[in-house]
Amino acid sequence: MAHIEKLHVLKFRNLTDQYLIPNNNINLILGQNGQGKTNLIESIYFLGHGRSFKTKNLKDIIPFDEQQIKISAIVDAQKISIKKTRDKSEILIEEVKISSNSSLSQILPIQVISPDRGFVVGGSPKLKRSYLDWGVFHSNNKTLKTYKTYKKTLKNINTLLASGNINELDEWFTQFASLSVEITKDRINYIKQLVVVLKEQTSNKFNGLIKLSDDFVFQIQTGWPKEVNPLSETQILEYLLKNKKTFSKTKHLSYGPHRANIEFLLNKKNETYLSRGEQKKMSIVFWMLQVMILVRNKIKPIVLIDDISSELDFNKIKTIIDYLIEINIQIFISDIGNKHLPVDIKKSSVFKIKNGVLESL
Questions:
Q1: Which in 65, 162, 223, 352 has the greatest CB count within 10 A?
Q2: CA 9 to chain centroid
Q3: Residues 186 and 236 placed together within one structural domain of the fold
Q4: Is residue 180 part of a domain?
Q5: pLDDT tens, position by position, 300-330
């Protein structure tokens, strides 16, 4: 279970020395555009992931005329903090330095719905892999080591291809084939878990999002051509060796788990032909399935929903919030505050933000 008991944003975008003692259920952050409500959501995400969901450039989030960002929190009685400058980063858990963002993610698992991140259905393959691998990691954190080794192996292969030194590729291809099968197996197993939960919950938790008669299908495209069995090391290695010269011409490896995708269909209609509203609804269903899997594995993430009324209508908001409250998830919601939201005031704390300054209402 993850609950933020205290949050201190010392430096982050326009937020300076802001303290928050959150509600264990709903935390509603209200403010006009440009006042800092999304920055607060982003800072919590940053603390859990070690990166932003809005930008890759650290300079975008370091306040003007400042040299660093710093965020800290008490999470389930543990103190965690992250400090980043333009040159280095420091992560502390109970004042002990750690080297990996994954330790933060285990203490503070976070999922976000934000217009800045986009919706998974109809989204880019990179975004889909991000959602998929977040779920795989939290279902089996042993996969982290495999992913890290895979990335290093891929980098070495691409370096050799770029330099034209293809004679040294065979050993790397062998390792790549093994890691590829391992990652693909974990992804396929995770997708199967999501499908099982979807079938169980269609008539229950997703009422208002999906009809009983709807056929919502998602399937992984493994990143390999159809003629290659993605679960066979032998076939993958044979394919790599056979096409070595082709890869040397392109100077990079264009097949493998790093090119995987998820294909979504609703009533046999491909996601690209769905309306924006349908894409949103199916994205929410997929996202809720991921949360359900975590809860079954006795992991309760913190949920961030940014600019909620601009992207979701009243019924969708109610479906999400009702479910999250039922399973005792801590929620942080930002909104401009000009529409009625279906939140239980008795289970909520409301904060106003103006010019980067938080105030409890």
A1: 223
A2: 21
A3: yes
A4: yes
A5: 899 999 988 887 788 888 888 888 888 889 9
